[in-house]
């Protein structure tokens, strides 16, 4: 390691630390790793391989942990992996008695030659809770009753008032412990009798697609992670204040847990 006594100085002196800093950030990192103050290795949560500490301009200390096997064909999105844990794996369910959740599906795909004809894309099923930043979005293989009901049970509490369009897969919701209201979009944007509408979820689709514009959001196996990033940002009102940042750091520690000191010395 770069910190292993390139100079003759006791580590119990101020002079040692002054000289250590003069040897650069890498020497400092090597020393604190040697002392067990920070982990000396990280395992990629995606491929389970040891990551490599490499230089990167723009970071605070000039270095970052990077997966050795990452490539354009096999991207590992660290930020989005953290969001998957913080928003998808650990989020509380939406709704409950007296709460309203709007649900809908949307096809995310490119337009062929700008003529309005969609090519193969991703069906996304989602829901937003009114008067709240709580939401969920999930890539689904199809829009069948079995598929959509499975996601609804996973994300929405019984007793919730669910508002949707008239898609036939939702006809069972009243039998599943939910209060179900519909709006026929072929006739109106708001049901004249019940006042039911899905303006919130419709507006959210626009926001998500705007945020994804220009990104490779349709890479196989990665689209859910983009949705998770949006969910995290929305839940935190798209603000990186101190409290949100601390929560994010805790999520990083859960995704990339520091190795025990004993493991480092093996």
Q: Secondary-structure blueprint of this entry?
A:
Elements: H1 14-22, H2 25-34, E1 51-55, E2 63-67, H3 78-89, E3 100-108, E4 111-112, E5 117-118, E6 122-129, E7 135-140, H4 145-155, E8 161-164, E9 179-182, H5 199-212, H6 223-235, H7 242-255, H8 261-264
Parallel strand pairs: 3-8, 8-9
Antiparallel strand pairs: 1-2, 3-6, 4-5, 6-7
Protein name: Mitotic-spindle organizing protein 2A
Domain ISXO2-like transposase: 93-235
Pfam families: DDE_Tnp_IS1595
Can you describe this structure?
Residues 93-235 form the ISXO2-like transposase domain. This is Mitotic-spindle organizing protein 2A. This protein has 266 residues and is of the alpha/beta class. 33% of the residues lie in helices and 17% in strands. Strands 7-6-3-8-9 form a five-stranded mixed beta sheet. Strands 1-2 form a two-stranded antiparallel sheet. The two termini are 16 Å apart.
